[in-house]
Amino acid sequence: MLVLLCAGVHIAIALGFVGILGLGFLVGFRSAMNLLGSGLFHQASQYSLVVIPLFVFMGMIAAGTGISENVYKSAQIWAGGIRVALGSPPLVHALLSGPFAGHPWLLPRCLLD
């Protein structure tokens, strides 16, 4: 693996290659290739991974329509004068964009606390 890393191969590819090579020596290369194919399919077909493209799509819609920029500008107006270590406008932006990201409970809960 060190040879692959020194050659400039990405760490994920180097780890995968060394893992498949080691598995091939332990159980045989045909079994390792079958396990590789079925394991990759099983991991990639999980229902919880459906949200990733939808989250990216939601971000593209928010950026394309200007919703995110408008929310950040309003957060700057509301909390721009408050001096805190973390910065209030990004925090207020996160609170206001929570309902757009699928967390409708985020805004009312933070306003009540």
Number of domains: 2
Mean pLDDT: 78
Q: Give helix % range.
A: over 70%
Low-confidence stretches: none
Number of distinct beta strands: 0
What form results from the Cα inertia axes?
elongated
Indicate the radius of gyration in whole angstroms: 23 Å
What is the tally of helical segments?
Answer: 7
| Range of strand content | under 5%
Structural class comes to mainly alpha
C-alpha termini separation: 51 Å
Profile the largest sheet. none
Topology:
Layout: H1 2-6, H2 11-27, H3 29-44, H4 51-65, H5 67-79, H6 88-97, H7 106-112
Helix pairs in contact: 2-3, 5-6
Summarize the structure in words.
The protein folds into two domains: 2-45; 50-112, no CATH class. It is elongated. With 113 residues, the protein is mostly helical. It is built from seven helices and no strands. The protein has helices at residues 2-6, 11-27, 29-44, 51-65, 67-79, 88-97, 106-112. The chain starts with a helix and ends with a helix.
